[in-house]
Every structure is written in structure tokens, then in C-alpha cells.
Specification:
The chain has helices at 17-34, 46-49, 77-89, 114-120, and strands at residues 52-57, 62-67, 96-101. With 135 residues, it is α+β, with helices and mostly antiparallel strands. The chain has a three-stranded mixed β-sheet. The longest helix has 18 residues, at 17-34. The radius of gyration is 16 Å and the shape is globular.
């Protein structure tokens, strides 16, 4: 199986309160790592772009990420996914990173963080026309 081929999603683990307490600090560190990864064509990190649909950390400290791209034919997809995998696996305490690439639901501008909207010149509040572009 290739590096990014779709695998069956692992069965859900039941985490105890103690597990959550131990794993919680890793979430912040993984998110910081994801914020260091950029699509070379867009001046916003993939986390604030809203490309990360799901982020789970298992008891084994393996990270599972479900992500997408702004378009299915993104020419930099392999490079960006390699950067995600490497960046997450470099976080101290993380034992591995599994990435599932999905295109449902399709990405749209409503998934942008407020910070990304400002960087890209969108109004933070959507107007009635839902374009998000500041008039």
C-alpha cells in the first residue's frame, strides 16, 4: 500500500479521562505543525485554509488526519501531503501520521478561518450574496 492510499478508518478508541489529559497537549503541537505547511500557491497555511477536516490522536500517539485540497487537481498535492506527514511526525511525542485525502465535502470559502479571510482580503462576515468578498 502506498504512502497516501486510502485505508479503512481504524475503529474508534475509547479514551479515558487520563488518556485525554495526556494527549491534549499534543493537539496544540500538531496544530502548530500544520500551521507551518502552506500550499505554495496560497499565502495561508493549510490549517487556516480549512483543509484539515479531522484530527485525531490515538492512545499510541499516532495522528490520524482527514484532509482535502481547494481543488481535486492540485498540482502540489503530493508535496503538501509529504510536508504534513513530516511536520506532524517531527512533533515530539507523535509516533506516526496517517493521512486520508478526501474530496467530500468539497472545500469552499466558508471553511476559511477568520485569519485566512483577512489575509486573503475577504470580509469576515458573509454578506447576503455569500461571496465573502468585501464590497
Amino acid at each position: 500500500m502506498g504512502l497516501f492510499e486510502k485505508k479503512e478508518k481504524p475503529e474508534e478508541e475509547v479514551l479515558t479521562a487520563e488518556d485525554i489529559k495526556e494527549i491534549a497537549p499534543l493537539y496544540e503541537k500538531v496544530i502548530l505543525a500544520l500551521k507551518q505547511v502552506y500550499d505554495p500557491e496560497i499565502p495561508v497555511n493549510i490549517y487556516d485554509l480549512g483543509l484539515i477536516y479531522e484530527l485525531n490522536i490515538r492512545k499510541s500517539r499516532e495522528v490520524y488526519i482527514k484532509m482535502t485540497f481547494t481543488a481535486p487537481n492540485c498540482p502540489m498535492a503530493d508535496e503538501v501531503m509529504m510536508d504534513v506527514k513530516q511536520g506532524v511526525e517531527d512533533v515530539p511525542g507523535v509516533t506516526g501520521c496517517e493521512i486520508e485525502l478526501v474530496f467530500e465535502p468539497a472545500w469552499d470559502q466558508s471553511m476559511l478561518s477568520d485569519e485566512a479571510r483577512v489575509i486573503l482580503g475577504y470580509d469576515i462576515d458573509f454578506d447576503d450574496d455569500e461571496s465573502g468578498v468585501q464590497q
